[in-house]
Amino acid sequence: MACAIVSDSTCDLPAALAQRYRVGIAPTVLQIDGQTYYDNITLTREAFYAGLPTFRNFPKTAAASPEVFVELYRNAGAEEIVSIHLSRKLSAMWTSAQLAAQDVAPHVRVHVFDSETISMGTGWMVLVAAEMAAQGASAEDILAVLEDMRPRTRVYALLSTLKYLHKGGRVNRVVAGVGELLQIKPLLEVYGGEVHLVERVRLKQRGVARLLELALRAPRIERLCVLYTGQGMEADIAHLQARAAAHVPIEQQLVQQVTPGIGAHLGPGGLGFAIVEAQSG
Are residues 89 and 182 in the same domain? Predict the structure, then answer.
């Protein structure tokens, strides 16, 4: 194998695609009520969201250790690896991968790439890289395409509550309390490696409308994934898919439940998009 692709569970790449392209996935570690779980290995998305409202303590998340990445790199069966991860401003995952890359050098050359985004924003980059690697592309060529994709990749999210952002230390108690009282729903955008609060809305209907406006404002969209956190959201998902169909046909869209490593900070009832805008011109 000329080049292999590695990522981590926060990329939200569907398991079937990861398996098809032999993408190595390092799991996020979760601590929940005194128990240690490994994202999508010993804790499924379904079990996590079913239990989220009842956990005694806020789930704590941690990056995979460098040792986990060392094992993935050594078992990849390639002399070169492109290792693609969520924004280093949001997690220590990139740092763990970089430490592991130094450990396996010079026998394996690992290029650790910061996607500057999260969830299927990263996942789209992983998929493109894996498709290219399967066609025999070099690490240099893959990295050039990823650099081009990065500014065209956006993730948007409408959350149903501020409570979980507060529990995770993202907003203070007063703001969270007022938000719950007024039923404020934050609308977020991820770009430049950071999470930005776009606006706060009180009505879900208004929030969904603004989410669609933001996510679908690009003249042309190459790839699109509908994201959600929680359960029982089929009607909401279908609505987003139908509205996005004018940009990307439904059969070409992906739908993905956000992984526990990210969902712990967002809470249930969230909706979003991960899109890759088409190149201009």
Answer: no
